[in-house]
Amino acid sequence: MSRIDELIAEHCPEGVDFRPLAEITSKSVSIKWVSAADASFKYIDLSSVDRVTRRIGETVSVTAADAPSRARQIVRTGDVIFATTRPTQMRWAVIPEEYDEQIASTGYCVLRPNNDVILTNFLAHILGTGNFSRYVESNQIEGNYPSIPDSRIREFKAPVPPLEIQREIVRILDTFSKMEAELEAELEARKQQYEHYRVSLLTSVESAKWSTLGDISSRVSTGATPKAGKPEYYRDGTIPWLRTGEVTFGEVFDTEIKITDQALKETGTSWIKENCVIVAISGATAARSAINKIPLTTNQHCCNLQIDESLANYRFVFFWVSSKYEELKSLGRGARSDLNTKIIKDFPIPVPSLEEQARIVGILDKFDALVNDLSVGLPAELAARRQQYEYYRDKLLTFKELEPAS
Q1: What is the pTM of this model?
Q2: Residue 210 backbone dihedrals phi, psi, to 5 degrees
Q3: Count of structural domains within the chain
Q4: What is the CATH number of the domain that holds 222?
Q5: Same domain, yes or no, for 170 and 248?
Q6: Which of 14, 10, 9, 6 is nearest to 402 (CA)?
Q7: Do residues 108 and 181 share a domain?
Q8: Fewer Cβ close by (within 10 Å): the C or N end of the chain?
């Protein structure tokens, strides 16, 4: 019998009390910006919380003069926040001391646990469970931006075992989280090392002869978007169709949406061969790049470079383009900073010998696998740790519910 089994047998052999979050947590208060004068606050927007690490990353400083309308909730150390917009993405975090009395978006439900009843980290682990995820999915309001009302989150009934049991469960799960954090730190160090080598290697070839992306390509194309609402273009489609949101500095092995042969014939899109360098040219994803590992079609916001193998190694081109993301993005035009095919074709690239390109690709591929390949190295170990944590989390946080007294 485990220590937790012993504690359950001792303290709650008949089951555990389940209580609505509204009964065991309180709400935050809203800031009165008219009284804030010139004070500056860190603003925790919906994008500030990392969905994988559950930690707060980048924030911006706001004052009464420039605070967004949703910057209203004052958070305290130990609060647990859960994003109510697109809630099935399961974006949540515990507020650390450095964000005490800072501001969170009203897009978060702020849960301030009563620590005499439920521990902060115990509540945080509960928000990651399959039970809570299923509750959120069945209670969200569908729409362009699915959401779940704050009140419905507070109606969720959470298991509330005695504090001694909570502490033991938190100790075990926090140990998993700590090991995961150590692996994440090591992986981040490897990524920095990879970036150093990428910059160094690609800078070393700038003395080579220069060309343009258009001149080293045997074909440059864009795609098209089959008209929405025409089922004959999408229903039972088998042709991979790539959107710019799927262009994410890596390799593409499949697409979320498939189109039909009829769509291919009637909408102006066309097949591209595998191993093209694809550059997004529109909106928020502009200047991101990827390599397609399967033949596919794309929308009109993808510029597809079929590299002439007699002139350049497609992976060398990909590494160059991805390393120049900021520079390429700065060339965008208009309100959305869109690129276009001509800008991509005219973008310069050094072209050393094919042997030198292959040497550089070989080195960078090894680093890339080390930091990005989920089947090997640190990413694989980190994924295994996360799976292990999720297994024990759901197992440890599943309790028999106490029957109400008759």
Answers
A1: 0.64
A2: -105, 150
A3: 3
A4: 3.90.220.20
A5: no
A6: 14
A7: no
A8: C
